[in-house]
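Here is one chain, start to finish.
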Amino acid sequence: MAAKLSVDRVVLDIPSFVHRHDTSHGWLRTLISAAKSPPRREYRRILDGISFDLEEGDRLALLGRNGAGKTTLLRVMSGAYQPTSGAVTVQGSKQVLLNLGLGFVNDATVRENIFLRSLTMGRPLAAVSETVSPILQFAGLEHRAGDRLGTLSSGQRMRLGFSISTAIQHDIMLLDEWFGAGDAEFILKAKARMAERANASKIVVLASHNFGMLRKVCTRGLVVEQGKVAFDGSVEDAIAAYKRIYQAEADYKAERVLAT
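Its structure:
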């Protein structure tokens, strides 16, 4: 079955709760007012009508400033967030590397966490059993299999999360900015595995500010700005479009500083 990923007019609004802030009558009255007045719920639009289609062979570079909506869009594509309107259609299995520590249970053992995390990712029990030993070996945690997860260092937890997430090859890979996954030796292993998984995936979406990596891996670029698609085209043109947006923002901030 051919792999496909379609994002159709996706909108995402998230609620936030704010208090009325009024210091015109002094701080004491403001504090009393805040204690008596319930917070008001407001909605912020994070993604605004985003659409694109990916088919087998596509390698999409996802570009945008911090806060532009890149990671949120990846979370919507992964199924972690449900869009307010619009739809995401996925055909094929997904491999998502966004938050490597998500879903861990501190009081469970390392081995138990492999089962728990893998099952929540939709892997069948029989397949999980076959991957436990390779996961422990890749993470360098064979000797810690029976220890509680809470006794591991942050680096060891990161290594475990990466090893679980990349244990099986999938059709579609969704990847956020590259991360430090432990010591230098493990980072080399992790990079080699990521290259292997990306090459074998039918569709890849990579969000990063590493232009060299994007040029090497991707065949198409999409720039997100304020939750909207600002550019969709070749990787080189997408990088140029992102730089123009970034430079315009830098120039604006410099003008504000000079004006004060």
